[in-house]
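Notes, p. 3: input format for complexes.
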Amino acid sequence: MDTSVTNVVAEFDEDVFVPVERLSAGLVVDSDLFADNQKLISKGTVLSQSIISNLTSRGIEQLKVRRGSSLARLGIMPESAEDRFAALLVDTGRIYEKHDLSMVIPQEKLESASHQIETFFCDLELGQSVDLTKMRGTVDGLIREFTKNPNGAVKLLDLEHFDRYTYRHSINVGLLFLLNVADWVDDEDELAEMVYGAVMHDIGKSRVDLSILNKPGPLDREEWEIMKMHPVWSSELLEDTAISDTGMRIARAHHEKLDGSGYPDGRNASQIDKFVRLSTICDVYDAITTKRSYKNKMNFAKAIEIIIQGCGPQFDPKIANMFIRKVGQYPIGTFVRLSDGRVGVVTSVNEAAITRPVVSIVLDQQLKETDSPEELDLSELPGIRIVGVVAGRTEETTDRPRANS
Ligand SMILES: [Fe+2]
Ligand SMILES: [Fe+2]
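Output follows (405 residues plus fe (ii) ion):
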């Protein structure tokens, strides 16, 4: 072991609490952090620059981080398998780059998009006036970036800091929507309008009290009535942004169900167009696969199972079928463990075999990083299968998403 490694190990062996000013993007948080009786960050969160800024502005002085992630940040491979997985998760940008996985939208762009949405939400929550024209301009810029690459990573690594859920959820729903709708619409402006509606669909949640939004248990009747207002508030807020009719319908109707049991208007199938039907599926898929304050994260397979079960009364079967074929059981950018012990990242989905995507191997059987990319088309390799997803803690639970996704 060379001296630099020894120093780093010693540094983090002694004390894994790192002063906030020394934190850097990519480190993994090792224990939940509470402030004012509210969970601020969950164990397992991968730090971004905006989270670190948020911690600084809240006066947080130090944070416990995973030792393995600290080593990974410095380009040193940790010894234990668990730490290597942690390293993989904090270093996705480098791994995408190393393996020339250019189909994946860079993490920084998503972080920046998420941060901008967060700023709008926070200003609205604080009752500050928000320049809606500026908001529109910002989101449009992001959409243009995304539309260049509709097959980009539609479901990025799970962010476990649920307090930021809504912001990232907005981006994820926009990306999932874009991936599916790109074939339906030729006109770029029209496409941008729709994706804008999908990104901003939950902006009305900025009027819902955080104690309701992040409540760990079920909502009581009164709280639920407030929560059910968020699509109405979304459409009210978007009215001033010259959004198209379709974009507006997505914001207003993304919780409507084909059998008329949805909210806020109880629309029936004849009143729910195909774009809204698609947005509903994107919304539910992202809600299921993301950890929230009131449920553990569920895996992609479970999400697909729930969408299939909801076909008919809730979801349009044809659109659900298209969504599942496009997104696959393992969306592009997902890190997967293979039955032969290797770890790969999904680079494309086989529409005819959604459980068998094409993967690029990033860790070998000894869980050491591979030097050159090796692509495996699992649809042609029946002897190798995916045995798990390497994104964060992926324990599967059976709890269903709360209806107010
Ligand atoms: Fe919603
Ligand atoms: Fe949503």
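The chain has 16 helices and nine strands.
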